[in-house]
Amino acid sequence: MTGKVYLVGAGPGDPGLMTLKGKTLLECADVVVYDALVSPAVLGMINPKAEAINAGKRRSAHSMSQATITTLLAEKAQTAAVIVRLKGGDPFIFGRGGEEMMALVAAGIEVEVVPGITSGVAAPAYAGIPLTHRDYSSSVTFVTGHESAGKYRPQVNWRAVAQGSETIVIYMGIHNLGRIVPELIAAGLPDTTPVALIRWGTRAEQEELIGSLATILEQVEATEFKAPAIAVIGKVVEVRSHLIPGLAAPLACD
Fold first, then answer.
1. Which of 14, 81, 97, 168 is the most exposed place for a label (fewest CB within 10 A)?
2. Which of 14, 18, 35, 101 is catalytic?
C-alpha cells in the first residue's frame, strides 16, 4: 500500500489565508515537505509528530533540486499515509506543482491538489490595489519574470503581454526588472504607467514601492528593494491612493 501525496497551497503568508482543508491536512500529516516561502505561522500548524522537511528553493540557494524533491515524495509515499507537499501560494501558479504531480502520477502514486491563495491576487489586495476595476481595467495577466533555462519557450513575449492586458502582475521579476521594463516601454506602454512593487505580501512586514515605468528602476536601486516581491503594472495602481485610507489592519484573533 502506498500513501497519498497532497499538493497543498500555503497561501502568501498571512496564516489567516490558509484554507481550512490545508490546515486540517497539516494537523494530521505524517510527512510535510515545505518550501522556503511558507511563513513561520503556517509552519506552526504542522503536526508536531510529523516529519518536517525543508525543500526550499531560493535564488542561488537551492536546498534540494526539483528531481530530488519528486524522488523524496515518491519514497515517503512508500512508508507514510499522509504526505503533504506544502507550497507557497498556489501549487499550480508558478509553483511547479504540475511538474511534481505528473511525476508522481507516472510513478503510480495518488495525488490530490488543495489550492491556495496566490500572492499575485492577495498581495495587491492587501496593498489596496484591485487588479480589475470598471473604470481602470477589465483584464489582468499573470506572468513570471524568472524563467528557467531549457524551458519550452526561450522567453516571455513581453510585447504581447503589454498589448494584451490592462493590468500586468509579474511574479519573481525583481531581479529582471532592468530587462523587463525597457521591453514593456518598447512594446508601447507609456513610461508614465504606474508600477507597484509589493514585498512579503500579506505578512506583517509587507512593504510597497510605488512608481512608474520611468522611475521604478531608479527607485529600486535607491531603496535597495529586494525580493521576494511581485510587481503590478497598470492604471489600477492609481486606485490605491483612494483605498488606503479605508484599509483596516488584518484581523488578529487568539
1. 81
2. 35
